[in-house]
Write a structure and sequence with these properties.
Helix content: 40-55%
Oligomer: single chain
Largest sheet: 7 strands, parallel
Radius of gyration: 18 Å
Number of strands: 7
Order of helices and strands: EHEHEHEHEHEHHHE
Shape: globular
Structural class: alpha/beta
Length: 256
């Protein structure tokens, strides 16, 4: 019998929720999971964009949700179960930044970033895990952290974002410790510098590109598609013996 080493990366008939799916990395993640066979639930505030992507993918569900509102989080899992009767994968991708010096940042802004980037992912993971644990097949949660959750930078000041992503890193470990024995694996991807809506201002200037080139051993920012493999690995059975892991995809940023 011929061995198919790629079979474990398939997600045929599995159901994956992706937050922040209206643009950027989230939309790419949705397309990747769909391409691997999953039925994808697209979650974000911009419904028109979600519906356009859902139409492109075919068997996908668009769910409008403001992650800062806890009552709307219940709707995400409820509508997923109504449509597909199961939840296999959750990708906690949605987030916001606070690019201003810590000495000047309003406390309310800091709180808002923590709420969207850390509290909401926990709340959604909690709801998804309950559905996964009710199904003996279990599931996989992939949190999108950041290199700023692993190291400080300072030159691009965003204390709330760094604090929230550091929280996601250790939340990933703790949820893994609590849920893995029951069948829900929890891991995280810590991307380096990628072009997205969040980094649009940074990469609008040549100085932003040059700064990353000087700091990253690979000497460039990440390109579209360079998170695909990490996502599929952690979302699929290819990582069935991996949990509580933070996978940095950062061009070597955190290695030096």
């Amino acid at each position: 019998m011929t061995l198919d080493p790629l079979a474990a990366f398939r997600l045929d008939d599995k159901v994956a929720i992706v937050t922040g799916a209206s643009a950027g990395l989230g939309a790419r993640f949705a397309r990747v999971l769909d391409g691997a066979g999953a039925k994808v639930v697209l979650v974000a505030r911009r419904l028109e964009r979600l519906e356009a992507l859902a139409y492109e993918l075919g068997d996908a569900l668009a769910v409008q949700c403001d992650l800062s509102k806890s009552d709307e989080l219940d709707v995400v899992v409820e509508r997923t179960l109504e449509r597909y009767a199961r939840v296999d994968v959750l990708v906690n991708n949605a987030g916001m930044v606070d690019a201003e010096p810590a000495l000047e940042e309003p406390l309310e802004t800091f709180r808002q970033v923590i709420d969207v980037n850390l509290v909401a992912p926990f709340a959604l993971a909690q709801r998804a895990a309950r559905a996964m644990l009710a199904d003996e097949r279990g599931g996989a949660i992939v949190n999108i952290a950041s290199v700023l959750g692993l190291v400080g930078v300072g030159q691009i000041p965003q204390a709330g974002y760094a604090a929230s992503k550091g929280g996601i890193v250790n939340l990933t470990r703790e949820l893994s410790a609590q849920w893995s024995r029951k069948g829900v694996r929890v891991n995280a991807i810590a991307p380096g510098w990628f072009e997205s809506e969040m980094t649009e201002d940074m990469f609008a200037e040549e100085s932003g590109h040059k700064w990353v080139q000087r700091r990253a051993p690979i000497a460039r920012h990440g390109r579209e598609g360079e998170l695909d493999g990490a996502l599929l690995f952690l979302a699929s059975d290819a990582s069935s013996y991996v949990t509580g892991h933070i996978l940095a995809v950062d061009g070597g940023w955190t290695s030096v």
